[in-house]
Design goal:
Helices cover 78% and strands 0% of the residues. It is built from 16 helices and no strands. Helix 2 packs antiparallel against helix 3, helix 4 runs antiparallel to helix 5 and helix 5 packs antiparallel against helix 6.
Amino acid sequence: TCFTLATSLQPEVWDRHQFKGMALEQCGRFEEAVDCYNQAIRLNPQKLGLFHMKGDALIKLEKYQSAIESFSQEVELNSCDYRSNLRKAYCFEQLKEYQKALACVNTVIQVCNSDPEGYERRASIQCNMKEYGAAASDFHTALKLLKQKRKGNETDFETTLESRITDCCDEFIKEKPTESQGYKLKAKYLGKLGRNREALKLLDQALEVDPRDLEALKVKGKILYTLGETECARECNLEIEKCGKDGDYLMSIGRISDALVVYDAEIQSRPE
C-alpha cells in the first residue's frame, strides 16, 4: 500500500517532458523544446495544452505553418479553446493569409466577445489589409473592454491602443484624402477624449471634402453645443435641415427612403 501511494505521487514521464520543454524555452532552446513537447504528446496525446505549448515554441522559430497545425490539433481536443484560435490567427497574419486570419479571430470573438485581445488582433489584421476604418473601430472596442477590466492606473497596453487608433485614422486619411470618412473617424475619437478643438478642425476638413456631409455636420453641431457655441451649432443644424430636404443629395448618399419622402412632397406641392 505504501509503495502504491509513493508511486502515485511521483510525476508522470510525459509531465517531465512538458516541464523540460518549458525550461528549454526559457533558455531560448526552442528546437529542443519542441522535441520535448512531441515526447509529452506521444505519451499523453489527449492532454490539453500540450499542442498549444508546442505551437508557441514553433512561433518563436517562425515555423508558422507547423504552428498552425499544432494549434489546430489543440482546438480539436478543446473546441472552446479560443487562445489557440488567436494564435492561429497570428500565424496566418504572419503568412499574409489575411482572410484565414480573420476567420480564426471572428471565431474567437464569437466565443469570447469580452476579451480585448480578440478585437486587438482583428484590428491588426485589418491594418494589414488597409481597412483602417474597421481597424480603428476594433482598437477602440479593445480599449473600452480593457478599461472595464482593469483597476487602478492606465496600462501601457491602453496607451498603445490609443496610439494605434489615431495611427489608423491617419493612415485612412493618407490613403483616401478626398473622402470625409477618415477625418470624421478621428474627430469622433478625439471628441470622446475631450479634445474638442482638434476634433472640430478635422470635421472642418471633412466638410471641405463634402460640404453637405450630414454626419460631419451633426457631430460638429454636438461639439459646438458642448463648447457653448450655440449660434455656430444652430448654423450646423440649419445646414442639416437644408440637406435633409434635398432629394438628389439624399439619393447620392444612399438614403433612398428619405429621398422618396422628399420627392413625394415635391410632387404633391407642384401641380401638373
